[in-house]
Amino acid sequence: MASGNPGEFEGYVSITENDKPVKLMDKARKNPFYPIGITAGITALAWSAYKFKKRGDTKISLYLIHTRVAAQSAVVGTLTLGVLYNMYQEYVVNPKKK
């Protein structure tokens, strides 16, 4: 016990609300496509919100479904590119010898 508190263990780090940006930065260092995917999704949502007035005769529910699909496609596409890039780096550029 570090400080004598009954619920506190030595080496234990509690996660609070203030640690969330630190966790996000840690994930961004490990996988740089993570923040790129988040940015792509937010950009797709912002673009759809900007074009909302010019949707024409399209129903709002259908427009929102298209917006969701566009944002998900942007994020999944970016993460897929990240996986392909990592595979290229691991198997083509720096292959492990057996």
Automatic annotation (TrEMBL):
- Residue ranges annotated for the HIG1 domain, each copy included: 5-97
Q: InterPro entries annotated for this entry?
A: Hypoxia_induced_domain, RCF1
What this protein is called in its record is HIG1 domain-containing protein
Lineage, please? Eukaryota, Metazoa, Ecdysozoa, Arthropoda, Hexapoda
Entry's localization field: Mitochondrion membrane
Species the sequence originates in: Allacma fusca
Q: Which PANTHER family match?
A: HIG1 DOMAIN FAMILY MEMBER 1A (PTHR12297:SF3), HYPOXIA-INDUCBILE GENE 1 HIG1 -RELATED (PTHR12297)
Report the transmembrane regions from the record: 33-50, 70-88
Any single GO BP term: mitochondrial respirasome assembly
- May I have one GO cellular component term? mitochondrial membrane
Tell me yes or no: is Transmembrane helix among this UniProt entry's keywords: yes
Q: What is its main location?
A: mitochondrion
Key words of the record: Membrane, Mitochondrion, Transmembrane, Transmembrane helix
- Keyword Membrane on this protein? yes
